[in-house]
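Q: Given only this backbone (293 positions), what sequence would you predict?
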């Protein structure tokens, strides 16, 4: 492996509040909060507002650096949800957690109206799995709010994306695509300091594509922006281990550790406490003796 890509750059990612998410000590663990009835691994568990808030609190106690709150499942085959429904699911959760905690929140949505309302409720980052392609107003919401913005690669759209994904060289294709989306965001006035890129593990990709992306994840650092990875409990881990979504913790931790060694900046996970241990251990190894407590 080419050593120059292994060192994770030190990023300070600017959010809507002006605070800087700092990757100096270790990659940031982002806890997933799905306020949905149908998410692939925890669908329905946190669909009630009180349960979602309690789970958010719990992830903060476990050491989550960011919470990513979503009201629409984007699992393969998922049916789209309208903006009003999505807002009803996420806004009370964001408002309540923002009022009591200092942990930055990200809104996982493809819709500008949902992002805008979530930012007003206290979110500071937009996680758009369509990378500004689904809603033409999303770029201006991101630009005018100063929110951090995650641009994720996806081939196709959630309903059909696993049908027949095709790549020449999956890593090269994803990188070219992400660079184009970063340029589109910059052209729309988004601040470069808030932009994060994500290869979109499982989004229009077969297990072999996902595994090649993981194996060569360090190459994505050449884009020059922090890399986010969301592989937690996903079906490629199930395919390798032969396990259902409820039994993929250890596989997810192995992926997290490998991603840290490849220089990832943010890990989007369901199991915050366990992932944080894996991240801290892998980061200590990556630093080879110069570890940070
Ligand atoms: N994966 C999911 C949702 N949002 N965002 C980013 N940036 N990267 C990801 O890999 C990603 C994401 C899907 O996972 P999950 O939220 O657990 O399930 P569902 O979409 O079924 O709610």
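A: Predicted residues:
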């Amino acid at each position: 492996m080419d050593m120059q890509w292994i060192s994770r750059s030190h990023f300070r990612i600017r959010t809507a509040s002006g605070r800087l998410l700092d990757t100096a000590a270790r990659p940031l663990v982002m806890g997933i909060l799905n306020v949905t009835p149908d998410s692939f691994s925890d669908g329905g568990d946190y669909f009630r507002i009180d349960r979602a808030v309690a789970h958010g609190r719990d992830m903060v106690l476990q050491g989550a650096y960011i919470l990513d709150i979503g009201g629409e499942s984007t699992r393969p085959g998922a049916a789209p949800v309208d903006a009003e429904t999505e807002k009803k699911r996420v806004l009370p959760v964001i408002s309540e957690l923002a009022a009591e905690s200092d942990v930055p929140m990200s809104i996982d949505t493809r819709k500008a109206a949902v992002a805008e309302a979530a930012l007003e409720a206290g979110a500071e980052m937009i996680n758009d799995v369509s990378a500004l392609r689904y809603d033409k107003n999303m770029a201006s919401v991101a630009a005018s709010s100063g929110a951090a913005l995650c641009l994720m690669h996806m081939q196709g759209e959630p309903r059909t994306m696993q049908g027949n994904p095709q790549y020449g060289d999956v890593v090269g294709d994803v990188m070219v695509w992400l660079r184009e989306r970063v340029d589109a965001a910059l052209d729309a006035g988004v601040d470069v300091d808030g932009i994060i890129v994500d290869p979109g593990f499982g989004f229009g990709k077969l297990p072999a594509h996902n595994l090649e992306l993981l194996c060569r994840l360090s190459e994505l650092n050449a884009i020059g922006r922090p890399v986010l990875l969301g592989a937690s409990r996903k079906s490629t881990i199930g395919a390798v281990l032969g396990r259902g979504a409820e039994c993929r913790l250890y596989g997810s931790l192995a992926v997290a550790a490998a991603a840290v060694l490849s220089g990832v900046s943010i890990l989007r996970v369901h199991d915050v406490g366990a992932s944080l241990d894996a991240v801290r251990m892998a980061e200590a190894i990556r630093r080879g003796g110069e570890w940070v407590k």
